[in-house]
Every structure is written in C-alpha cells, then in structure tokens.
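Researcher: Next entry in the queue.
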Amino acid sequence: MGGTPEDFDARYRDVQLVPALDGARLRFEIENASGITWRAGNGMSASYQIFDPTTGMLLVDGARIPLSGDIQPGGRTVIDLPLDVPSEAGEYRVYASPMREQGGWGFERGSKFVLADLSVNADRSIHPGQVRVTDLAASRRAGLRRTLRRILSLPFETVWRNRSLSATLVKREILSRSRGSFGGGLWAILSPLLLMLTYFFVFGVVLNQKFEADPRPGSWTLYFLAGMLPWLAFSEAAGRAPTVLIEYRQLIKKLVFPIETLPVNLVYSGLVGEAFGLALFIPFCLLLRGHLPWTVVYLPLLLIPQMIFTAALCWFLSALGVFFRDLAQINGFLMTIWFFITPICYSESQMEHQIPGGARRILNQNPMFILVRGYRAIFLEGRAPDWKAIGGLTLASLLFAMLAHAWFYKLRKSFVDIL
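Model: Structure for this entry, 419 residues:
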C-alpha cells in the first residue's frame, strides 16, 4: 500500500539528538498531521538514513521502528531512534521521518522530516550539530546556499586557518633540499645566481640580443630574467602538483590533517625561490642600470593573482594526479609548451610578427603572459602594469580557485583508499 504524500504529513516536537554508548539516539514526539490513521499493521514505521553531506552518498539505511500502535489524525507518539553512526571521522547528516516499506519515505514525498547534523572525531567520539525540522525542498535550497558560501569562503579560510602548519612544512621542505650537500643552504642563492650568469653570457654576450626599449649590453638578460621571475615560482609549484599527494601518502594515511594545504605549500615554496631570485635580480638590475623605477612598489599587486591562480591549478592537478598517475609526465610536457607560448625567451614583438592575429589574441589571455608583461612593466619600463588585464586575471583566478578547491574537497575522501 503506497499512499499519497499527504498520508505522511507530520509535526514534530521536542527533537533531541544525544550521544549514546552505542552511537547516538534521535528522539522526538511526532503528531499525525495527515487525514488518515497511521496503522502499524500496514507497515507504517519511523526510521532514518545517514548521508555524507559532501557527496550526498547514502551511508546507513537505519532499522525500522514500528509505531507503538495505530495513530489517529492529530494523535501523537514518541519515537526513539538508535542511530548506527559510522565510526570513520567526518561529518554526517541524518534524515528521519515516517515511512512505509511499500510507500517509501515521507521526506522523499515532500512531507516534513527531522534533519540532524553530527560529526565523528578521530577518537570516535560523537558531537551533535544542528537539528531542525524541514522539508526536502527547503533543505535543498539551504544546501545550495550553504554550498555556495563554502565555495566562496572555504578556500581562503583553509589557507588562513592552516598558515602555521604550512609555514612549518615549507620550512622543512626547503631545508631538506640542501641537506647533506657541501653547499648547504647556499644553494638557494647559488642556483638562481648561476642561472642569471648563464643567460647573461648566452644572450647578452654570445648572441648579443637587445631589448628594444634599452639597447645597452645585458638589457636582454634583464628582459629575460624579469619574465622568468614569475615563471620559476609558477612552474615549480604546478610541476610538482600532480605528485604532491603521492609524495605525502604515508602522512595522509597515518594522520588526520588538512591535506588541502599541501598544494598551497607548493605555492609558498615557489615564492621562496622567487624571493631569492629577486634578491639577486635587483642588485643585477642596479648594476646595469644604476636605479630601480618606483613602479616596483606594484609587485605585491602582481603577486596576488599569481598566488591565487597557482594555488587553483595546484588544487586541480593534485586531486587529478591521485587518480591519473600519468599526469605527472603529461604535465611536464604541457609545462614546456606553456613556457614556449609565453614570450619569455623571445620578445613580444617577435610574437606579434610571427603569430597570426586570431591565435595572438588567444595567447594574449595566457595568465603567465599577463604576469610576465606586468613584471617587465614595473621593473624595466617604469610604468604601472595593465590594470584591466590584471583585474581580469584576478577575478578569473578567484573563480578558478573556488571551483578547483570544490573539486579537491569533493574528491578528498577517496584519496586515502587510492593512495
């Protein structure tokens, strides 16, 4: 016997969610608000289902609790549901309502039901959350609003809340790179210095390249290195992103900690490398030019979209890399292509002359091209960056970061099983 949606109409009072020795119990008084008698003999009962609020996956289909007897319209009874809560740490959502085996669940038919949130800690202790009476349509609207709020705020809350952990992990990683070598921490300075000297010799001495706006010797090296500053920070982070969760898989399996910070730590590591590059680039620029333009004060405004875009790409690639292990090799090839379609080792005028107009307009939207052009503007040309392009990049990066973090957050529960 199925029944109509109105047959399940109910009112709830004194709703309580309390921890118990064997899990938790959901208690409430229910009133028959329908126009028919609820008869226990027809299979009418009360029960619950537990869902993963992130994925919407059904985790527990609870035991049916038969009504104590027939309940006339307007009649009431007390329901006490023992909840079989999963032992794994996490957030869970409980749906409880009248149901009939042949007629389905009351909440699925649009009637009011009890919606309760609870969380399980690593020590398996249960903590009740919000408990309310709602219907499925209102719950979905609230869920959509909650999801939008989380998409908009959670990426930045995660970064800020775990800043101390990130600082510790980044420091440990940077120190471990040079551990056991003769140069030790000096390699943080020697590597970019040797890179600058190499390119100065190749482009400035051997090829005698000239920067159109400055024909003096060595100007091409400055032009090249100004473009390399954002690229080195970006490529270091994006290049490692597909394997970062695999590198830390033992830590992920043994400890409960915010794994979404691992891709962000790559961004910080790249910025540390860029800081050492700047520490050498600026004296080099002073040596060849004798001054730095005042426009270098705009550098923090370029770092903002750079960091957001890099973090977004790292979130996306790190989550995908868990499921697609070949991504690391493919990503290396794609990063090489990305480098050469960005005018770093050749001038923008060469790109304008040799690439058709349609393709050039597409390449002009390349995020790294926008950043490289901005770095050269503030360091070499003494002018402000293109604020329209930087503003567009910032907005696009924010949207990308929200979507990439949502992608990472949705998939993270399956990382432990796959890693």
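Model: The longest helix spans residues 261-289.
Researcher: Noted, moving on.
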